[in-house]
Amino acid sequence: MSSAQECHKRQRAEDAGHDPEDGPAETVHAGVSLDLRDAEDAGHDRERTEDGQDRAQAQVAGRNRPRGTANRKYPPHDRAVAERRGRGSRCDVLVLMEMKEAFFLMRARRDAEGMISDFDYITVNTEACRVAGCSQAELTGRGLLEQFAEVGQDGRLDRYRDVVDTGVPYHSMFDYHVGGTPGTLEVSVTKAGDGCLMIGSDVSDRLHAQQELADSERRYRRMLETTREGVIIVDAEARITYANPQLAAMSGFSVEELVGSAVWTFLSSESHADVETGIEDRRSGKAGVYQARIRRKDGSKIWILISASPVTDSSGQYAGSLAMISDIDDRIQAEDQLRHERDLNDAMLDVAGALVAVADANWCFVRFNRLAEELTGYREADVLGRSYQFMVPPEERASVAATLDPVTSSDHPITLENHWMTKDGDRRLIRWTATGLFDADARLTHVVAVGLDVTDERQVEEQLAQRADERLKHDQELTAAHAQVQSRAEQLERSNRDLEAFASALSHDLREPLRTTADFIHLIEDRYASDLPEPAQELFGYVIDGTQRMSDRITAILNYARSGASAAPPHPVDSAAAAATAAADSGAILTETGAQLCIGPLPTVSADALQLQRVFQNLLTNAAKYHQHGVAPHIEISAEPLAEHWQFTVADNGPGVPEAMRERIFRMFVRGATGDEDGGTGMGLALCRRIVESYGGRIWIEDNPGGGSRFCFTLPKPLS
Fold first, then answer.
1. Does an H or E element contain 502, and which?
2. Which of 11, 71, 188, 250 has the fewest CB atoms in 10 Å of its CB?
3. Comparing C-alpha atoms, which of 480, 447, 442, 443 is closest to residue 464?
4. Judging by beta carbons within 10 Å of its beta carbon (0-12, 13-18, 19+), is residue 397 exposed, middle or buried?
């Protein structure tokens, strides 16, 4: 316990009429009540204690103090009380002297008229000396204006006078400088006898910290409001506490509309589960990056990329999340379009009637279509990444490589014939049309080859050559055989001419839209790559590669589109089973549109099951897709016998097909005049016509008496 505390304890006990030596007494709460003379004595006592000299005693002895405690006369009983109280006042001063706050006790100096002209320092503590920049000896006994002249200029002297005259405390703050170091003191001035007591706290560090915090907050807010990305802060209840202008522009809501609302208000419903999962991750302290979809104020929806981190309070508890938000809607749409085109190309490759093989710049397979699988017995997975030469007989490899060499430096197609070895060891003679694909720097990227199996044709030619002598004896047989060979040769020649012309046109014109798509993707990458995280940049690389692969596949598919290859050999097919399979495969769009499908009794015909299934599926998909707005599709499949054929009818209640379009709509790449921007590729009905006619039938469109259209086609009855 300090001397001041011990002194104060004793004084309280004595005031209560209890001698401290007699043991504990009842605690009496005593405020600090100061007499200026007692304070002066206490100050001298402290000075004597600290300096080890008896200067205070000499000063007191030489000073005329008629009202001092030492000169007072008391009755015997009151003298003890007065002495105890005098000791208590000095104890109060000692308590104040040991405070960490600056303590100034001042006596009013009055002129001849009794007006306060200045204040004299009576007692100050160590902190007061530090703030004043001088020692206790230098301050004690000096006037306030002598030490600090500015007090009389800035109005503080008048405030101190008011405190003495009115007894109303005065509170203020003022700056000080000690040794060139500035500071700020927060003071409270109260009346003390014919003077005042000033207690001040140094708030320099607090004000400096507050200023630094304000500066930091301004810099942080400036950074958030000038970034190109959207920024959002949500609290622990997922309510928005901050949104920058970029997020407001992105969402269409104002900052005021966003702040205070729940984050779910501008999220699309399909993204709620993902965002809830993300928030739970933030609660467990995990950062995360994920995609979501927001609903803008105008009702439109866009995709965003969210990079979120948890925010904790001073105790380390979860307090919310901070997220950077990027608009990736254009990228997502481009990816969806590329994915749709890729899926379409894959589907068209698989229904192609010609061999389609695609190799990279190292002559290794990157695509191998269904017909190539059926011909060779190899699955696509078995050949991908392997050189094409493993399928070429060893004795032909050098000549084939030499023939293909011009493809590496020119995009003009070439034609060649060579054998392919099948998985079971057989050899098939293939006639190829190949063309090279190049990037913007004229570097070879892929080689696309479309081929026809001419093994049977060559065997026929060889058989005819071997029977040259027999032709003289069998004119009719020779004429018929020659007509057959000539017809098939003409068909093959026409197919080759179409292949060459079409491949040349495709290498320049039909790939142009995909080049444009690739250019725009490059443009997006150049402009925004620096703002996107590394995974997003990697995705852009995948998109660009996918664009190139799509270009290659489209080239191969369209080469097939005019190949003129024959369909699979006809055989008896259960058309009811084919229709049922087609309906199952079309189940998604039938369910989505609420279509009603009725399938009547269907016969057995001469065709191919897979090809007939594709005819039904294309017609069902068209009937479901192109229906009248607000009216559920109603589709009926029926059949009726003709002389040598069966006539099938697929009737719907849709908008119908204009008379002028009924022939043209069966051409390749022609879409129905429905105004639907998502009307497919224009290949569905062209493929239907190709399949039906390859089996000796025909296809056409009629008006449905009940409204809508009737798609009719015929197929031969099976041979007895």
1. helix 475-505
2. 71
3. 480
4. middle
Buried b (16+ CB within 10 A) or exposed e, 90-128: bbbbbbbbbeebbbbbbbbbeeeeeebebbbbbbbbbbb
Q: Are 284 and 308 spatial neighbours (Cβ–Cβ below 8 Å)?
A: no
pLDDT tens-digit readout, 63-83: 333 333 333 343 444 444 444
> How long is the chain?
720
How many other CB atoms are there within 10 angstroms of residue 466's CB atom?
9
CA contacts within 13 A on the Cβ side of 643: 0
Q: Distance (Å, rounded) from C-alpha 187 to C-alpha 104? A: 10
pLDDT confidence of 461, banded at 50, 70, 90?
confident
CATH topology of domain 227-327: Beta-Lactamase (3.30.450)
Contact 635, 596 (CB under 8 A): yes
For 352, other C-beta atoms within 10 Å of its C-beta total: 20
Cβ atoms 452, 364 nearer than 8 A: no
d(CA 691, CA 274): 46
Task: Give every CB contact of residue 636 below 8 A, 6+ residues apart in sequence.
Answer: 597, 598, 599, 600, 649, 650, 651, 652
Give the three-state DSSP class for 26. coil
Question: Cα separation of 467 and 180, whole Å?
Answer: 122
- Going by C-alpha positions, the residue among 45, 39, 13, 10 that lies closest to residue 26 is 13
Residue type, 270: E
**Local structure of residue 670 (DSSP, 8 states):** P
In what helix (H) or strand (E) does residue 327 lie, and over which residues does it extend? strand 318-327
Closest CA to 38 of 69, 10, 80, 2: 69
Spatial separation of the C-alpha atoms in residues 82 and 196, rounded to whole Å: 23
Task: Work out the average pLDDT over 638-660.
Answer: 94
Sorted by where each begins, the domain ranges of the chain are 3-118+134-165, 227-327, 335-561, 571-716
* Position 30 pLDDT exceeds 50: no
Alpha-carbon distance of 420 to 365, in angstroms, equals 14
The band of 465, judged by pLDDT with boundaries at 50, 70 and 90, is confident
Phi, psi of 104 (to 5 degrees): -120, 120
Please count the other Cβ atoms lying within 10 Å of the Cβ belonging to residue 267: 20
- As a whole number of angstroms, the distance between CA 214 and CA 177 comes to 24
Tokens of 169: 């405390």
φ, ψ for residue 551 (rounded to 5)?
-60, -40
Which residue, among 337, 341, 287, 332, has the nearest Cα to 312 in the 3D structure? 287
Q: What is the pLDDT of residue 19?
A: 47
Over range 160-170, report the average pLDDT: 93
Spell out the residues 6+ positions from residue 190 whose beta carbon is closer than 8 angstroms to its own. 163, 169, 196, 197
Q: Is 626 in a helix, a strand, or coil?
A: coil
Equal CATH topology for 227-327 and 571-716: no
Query: Residues 32, 36, 39, CA angle at the centre, nearest 5°?
Result: 65
Region 335-561: CATH code: 3.30.450.20
pLDDT digits (tens, 9 = 90+) for 657-670: 999 898 999 887 67
H or E stretch at 584: helix 575-585
What confidence tens digit (pLDDT) does each residue in 671-701 have? Answer: 665 544 445 566 788 889 988 998 899 999 9
Distance CA 627, CA 321 (A): 47
CA distance 228 to 529: 13
First to last CA, the chain: 124
Q: The CATH number of 571-716 is which of 3.30.365.10, 3.30.565.10, 3.30.160.390, 3.40.50.12280?
A: 3.30.565.10
> Tokens representing 472?
């003289």
